[in-house]
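QA checklist item 7 of 12: single-chain prediction sanity check.
[x] sequence parsed
[x] length recorded as 139
[x] structure emitted
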Amino acid sequence: MSLAQKTALIVVLYAIANVAIGYSIHRNVVAPEFADLEQREVAKNMQRAFEAIQREAAFLDVLAHDVASWDATYEFAETHDREFYALNLSPAALKTSALDWAIAVDAAGELISGPIRDIRTGEKLAIDELSARSWSRAH
């Protein structure tokens, strides 16, 4: 074997060893660390999303309790006054609030507010769980 062939063989073997060592380090050290980092970031982001939903639910709970305690809301539940609906629950009224839609149910469980509409287009939305004409008394 000539000196040029020996040199070429050594260079090729060195390159193969270098690639193998680099791949081994990546597979056994770097990749698991990135996987762990990704899992931690996903868990952190899920916790943030959960906390944001909890904050929104708490805000909505306070708002619902506030509106439900108005004398006018109680009267609306009894009389189904369309003026109250237009002023407080209609899509036009909700555009000024932080709500996309709201529903009202009277003491008998009957839906007394208007249909749920897309806030951007005004189209009626078919949300079966929220569009029921009658709700249980434990709603």
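[x] summary fact logged: The first helix runs from residue 3 to 68.
[ ] second reviewer sign-off
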